[in-house]
């Protein structure tokens, strides 16, 4: 990819984030879930991947709950409301939830040996490339943005990761606002 193409892609990404951020200002709580899923679908389209989801950490249960998801018709379904126990992603759970570190791989061969259980799970789900970004709320990781490709390998440019964290924070803050409004 040449420099001009990279700059144009980065500008398109920033424009998308700006538009998404603006949509969440004063968003009525009854539209929040639909808007989060629409935003995830835009991220999915931008990266040309198959699945994008928001997961909530279930504190005290060592699990994540899929709260919002967007997927292409070809992607194997991972339905909203699915509980993902730590036992199927022990390395990822520790890295994301306990250490607050990003997981990014373009292909499964990049997963380190200590992630062998996670790698097996991702293979079963058909995941070729994966980007998981922890979203902090206060001092703990309450949510994860998970973006994955099942049809082809994808390189995840590091420059986008902090901006996707900001998008995740927008989602989580809106969800928290809704909780306090209720």
Indicate the percent of residues in helices: 40-55%
Task: Tell me the distance between the termini.
Answer: 48 Å
Q: Name the helix and strand elements from N-terminus to C-terminus, one letter apiece.
A: HHEEEHEHEEH
**Number of continuous helical runs:** 5
For the biggest β-sheet, the strand order reads: 3-2-1-6-5-4
- The whole-angstrom Rg is 16 Å
Q: Give the beta-strand count.
A: 6
User: Strand-residue fraction?
Assistant: 15-25%
Mean pLDDT: 91
Specify the overall morphology: globular
Instruction: Name the poorly predicted regions.
Output: none
Defining traits:
6-stranded antiparallel β-sheet, alpha+beta, 182 residues
Describe the structure.
With 182 residues, the protein is of the alpha+beta class. Helices cover 42% and strands 23% of the residues. The protein has five helices and six strands, in the order H-H-E-E-E-H-E-H-E-E-H. The protein has helices spanning 3-23, 32-47, 90-98, 116-124, 161-181, and strands at residues 51-58, 63-71, 83-85, 103-105, 129-137, 140-149. It is globular and about 45 Å long. The termini are far apart.
What's this entry about, in short?
The protein is of the alpha+beta class. The protein is 42% helix and 23% strand.
